[in-house]
Amino acid sequence: MPLCDYFSAPDDQAAVAVLGTPGGPGQAELDVVFLKNIDPVVAMAQLEAVMTGCSYEEAGERPRSGQLLSEPEDGPPFVVSLTDTLIDALATASADDLVRCAEAWSMTDELRQVGITGEATADVLEALAGLAQRARVSGWRLYCWWAL
Fold first, then answer.
1. What's the pLDDT tens digit per position in 31-85?
2. Which strand ranges, in their side-by-side order, compose the sheet holding 32-36?
């Protein structure tokens, strides 16, 4: 089961530097949401589509969408970026928006296949929204540390 720890960092260089810290971003004393099985490429593009009303394809083509920042031959773990569009959507979402989006996101094949319930999805979205809000206050971006 892959670990997908979502974290904030000031820039891509600082995010990739997390690979030098055994245990990842939590041990690097960064703001982290510890998740499992919610991948930064497909699941996050699906979430962006749900939250912004765009298509999955459009979300996946946006700059920084699931972009591998670390060297593939060095991993896993890997560091992957999230789009600024998704960060903004998460940071500005109301509680009602999060509930509505959690329901729709939980119905995607990606989340259903890994058995994530609607209630669990709502908790994940609340945690990610908090992370995005804190990142925006600092002018930071969001990333995923993906490890097996």
1. 999 998 899 999 999 999 999 999 999 999 999 999 999 988 877 899 999 999 9
2. 32-36, 3-9, 141-147, 78-81
Q: Is the pLDDT of residue 1 over 70?
A: no
CA distance 118 to 78: 28
Q: Distance between CA 144 and CA 116 in Å, rounded? A: 19
Rg (CA), the chain: 14
Q: What is the total residue count of the chain?
A: 148
List, as one string, the DSSP characters of 47-89: HHHHHHS--HHHHHHSTTTT-B-S-GGG-SSEEEE--HHHHHH
Its pTM stands at 0.94
Q: In the structure encoding, which two tokens stand for residue 135, read together?
A: 């990142």
Torsion of CA 26, 32, 37, 40, to 10 degrees: -120
Q: How many CA atoms lie within 13 A of 118 on its CB side?
A: 6
Distance CA 35, CA 3 (A): 6
